[in-house]
Amino acid sequence: MNRSFRPGDLLNWLSGLTMIAALYMVFLYAPTEATMGHLQRIFYFHVSSAWVGFFAFFVTLVASIAYLASRKRHWDIVSFSSAEIGITFTAMSVITGSIWAKSTWNAWWPWQQEPRLILVTILLLIYFSYLMLRAFLEDEEQRARFAAVYGIVAFASVPLTFWSVRWWQRLHPVIFERRGAHLSRAMLVTFLFCLFTFTILYFTLLLHRSRLAKLADEVEGLKRRLHSGGGS
Amino acid sequence: MSFWRKVLTIIWKDVVAELRTKEIFSSMFVFALLLIVIFNFSFDLRVEKVAEVVPGVLWVTFVFAGTLGLNRSLALEMEDACLDGLLLAPMERGTIYFGKMLGNLIFISITEALMLPIFSAVFDLNLIRPALLLTIFLGTSGFAAVGTLLSTMAVNTRAREVMLPVLLFPIILPVVISAVKLTTGILDGLPWDSLAPWLRFLVGFDIIFLVISYLTFDYVVQG
Amino acid sequence: MIQIQGLVKSFGHTYALQGVDLEVAEGEFLTIVGPNGAGKTTLLRILATLLKPTSGLVRIAGLDMASGGTEIRRRIGFVSHRPLVYSNLTVEENLYFYGRIYDVHPLGERVDMLLNLVGLEGRRHSPARTLSRGMQQRLSLARAVIHEPSLMLLDEPYTGLDQQATKMLRRLLQTINPESRTVVMTTHNLERGLELCDRLAILSRGRIVHQSEKAPLTLTELQEIYWQCVEEKTD
Fold first, then answer.
1. Closest partner residue to A224 among C13, C18, C205, by Cβ?
2. Do A152 and B216 touch (CB under 8 A)?
3. Domain residue extents for chain B
């Protein structure tokens, strides 16, 4: 079958290959950390997921602004596709963080020691609200418009929450040493490669999710035309 | 000058209507009273020193009661499509935003002012202090700034009353965190130096939220 | 007064207007008739600057929709089947409120004059929610003309009115329509639509499917044209 090359193909292959390489690096190439042992290896995927979460929500912000400026539907599609991916990755980072916390501090939810946990959870809540707002609006145009406004306000709130949580932490003594400060060279390389891999994975998912949403959108459009008796 | 005159006209309209019905105000006030009673019972049995939970109770009450007021204020605007009437007038959409926002701020502030003596009596703690009043005013301003924008969206959704807290609470968190911190600090008698950063935060958050809400309001009201 | 070219408005996948071309001259009374869901309300709401067009050109009094919003709104009086008055304010307060946001001077005299015109001076101090539907609609009319707009937009103004109120509204529409005032009215009632207009347009499925001068038309002729226009589309 003679199929023309699509940019998606490149991304599919690239994310598959880099993911295999990343797994190799995390489990075999990177040295075992002295104090925490193998457990520390969760760090690579944990931080990478958190990064993709933030980045995805940033893309939602940019797409929201672009939607309000242009009123083009595809920006709305990018906006909520990115928010969905962001939620998935943020949830992943909460879960991996929680596993880590259980093993090091013997608590699933040590938010007194690690206020960033609260921050990430709030992020999740904000974008759940974003999806809920969309679910409760019928009119597609209004849904896109309101969601875009919420996408902007939501993202503005994130750094503010970050600052206030950080300052909160200053008043509480930090009991546990924050880790990550002393990475060996091999660890750093592994970490950076994981960041790269996850970013590629993000773009691959975004492409597929937006394409799916676009197709669903077209189907919806065809249905409408069918219902309205084929009017134009 | 015409801008502020029209803002005042919108506030005047809300105040006159409210003085006649006392709808928004009474619902907020009664709700806040109920919250105090519930909090009082739930803490009375276990908490050793009531003063420690006061900042939290105070702000939870204000935020919950304020949400009720915001919902009602915008629902009234939707009732006979009155918002359309405002949108038809020859003024920038920002005028409507400021009018509604300041009106909401006034209503919520009055409720809070009436609640404070009751709080003071129930928790046996003097809450009427200038620094605390300033904190409450700043916290409420930030709340009203985002709240007015988001309640305009919420009243257009299917879920209406349910939607506003879902949208508003996670967004407003930085304001609530700083306000609670400041309140705790003031009640603990902390020196001004350690409170100043929180006060700066609160003012900064208010300004940021106000500007963003003002800029995006247009997109919420016009299809 | 109004120039519309290729006006399209979509709500997601639903196209409310699919390319409307229309001109209304100054001082003209245009009635737009059409079945429910034809896009009448959408068209009027776009003219009233309550909705933004998806594409196409709309100019009112030579002003472009996109840039001249505030100036256009100053010239428009809008009456819909919803009264747009605050039910908790009195009749007088409602008019004072709208007068102020429209910068009307001197407001007191204007309010007195309008209350007299719509026959509500006796109910001056009653809250709007205590008025009957017909009275509310009269108040709504007074509200819409308080700033002496040069363009009146009437969206199904007769909906929910009884016979007497309808008669009163019709008389008011005649009195508030001196030579200089342009009126665009939508209705699904052909008889009412034909009464006052100079020109008549039929809107169906988001398009103007027929336009004609009123003069040679009788109601039966109009009905015939209307059913032809509307039905051939539904087949």
1. C13
2. yes
3. 3-222
